[in-house]
Design brief:
It is a single chain. It contains 12 helices and 6 strands. The protein is an alpha/beta fold. Helix 2 crosses helix 11 and helix 10 packs across helix 11. 44% of the residues lie in helices and 10% in strands.
């Protein structure tokens, strides 16, 4: 009886979501929890009865990056420049519409601002959600550890003994890096400037998307989407609310029962690491940030 009821909910959800556009945009910077967000969003769409193109676990979400066009099933020889991106989006949308399937594209605002891209996305009716990492220190630490930000004389990645490391992005695939790989901030004033810059960009990105044609694009945070992973009262409710907002932004009618079904196996599975595990000179960083910003985790 329970399985039959769940099947009925999914079937009704699929009918309710028959007008969801093929291309679903997620405006999200790197180091903002994009891998988790895209993977869980795919599970959410499937749970709501929507069809995804190809193998969901193998689909490349960053199709607006020119360097990733070789992984793009809709890219042709013209897929290596700005005109190619525009043409690709039209081909992609047509193909998805024919097979009645959907595809999530994750891109940062700079990529969406590439000539012709926003106009093409609007022309095919792509829906948009703005997502970011609320904790700006986590964002900066991640970028330094990946070698996307900093470098001498400002900040660089080190081992837990303080030795310079060139592991960079590959640290994501190294079990040892989770406990022996940290960000060192040689210039804490630079660090504070970058933290405040990212903090301001949250509002600015939403304003840019509004000017590009998505004035009603909702904003969600990685921390809100993952609130259920921490064992605290109300976490699951916070996450359900945040995922409902994200799905609504894609014009999917959110069903709390289905969202809860996807999230429940993840409840209590992760606790954000205190910053003394990710920042080498954490006492200096903590002093530079001060309490008002509230980004630093001691425990």
């Amino acid at each position: 009886m329970i399985l039959f009821s769940l099947y009925s909910i999914i079937s009704l959800s699929a009918i309710a979501n028959s007008t969801v556009p093929p291309i679903l945009m997620l405006a999200m910077e790197g180091c903002s929890g994009g891998t988790y967000t895209v993977a869980t969003a795919r599970a959410m769409l499937l749970a709501h009865g929507l069809k995804l193109h190809g193998r969901a676990d193998k689909s490349e979400p960053e199709l607006l990056k020119l360097r990733k066009q070789h992984m793009n099933p809709w890219a042709k020889e013209d897929g290596v420049d700005k005109d190619g991106l525009r043409n690709m989006l039209h081909r992609m949308n047509g193909a998805l519409a024919n097979e009645k399937s959907h595809y999530i594209i994750k891109a940062n605002v700079v990529e969406i601002l590439q000539p012709g891209v926003a106009a093409a996305l609007r022309a095919v009716g792509a829906s948009m959600v703005n997502a970011w990492r609320e904790n700006s220190l986590d964002y900066i630490v991640c970028n330094v550890r990946d070698c996307f930000l900093g470098g001498a004389p400002y900040a660089w990645p080190v081992t837990d003994t303080g030795e310079l490391s060139d592991l960079c992005f590959e640290r994501r695939h190294s079990p040892m890096a989770k406990v022996h790989y940290k960000a060192f901030f040689n210039d804490t004033e630079w660090m504070l400037t970058e933290v405040l810059k990212h903090d301001r960009s949250k509002l600015r990105n939403g304003q840019i998307l509004a000017r590009l044609g998505w004035p009603d694009a909702p904003s969600v945070t990685y921390e809100g989407l993952t609130a259920h992973e921490e064992q605290h009262v109300g976490g699951i409710d916070t996450a359900i609310s945040e995922w409902s907002k994200l799905l609504s932004g894609w014009r999917v009618t959110p069903n709390e029962t289905l969202i809860r079904m996807v999230l429940l196996p993840q409840v209590g599975t992760r606790k954000p690491a205190p910053h003394n595990q990710t920042v080498f000179n954490y006492n200096e960083v903590r002093s530079a940030l001060g309490k008002p910003l509230g980004f630093f985790r001691d425990v």
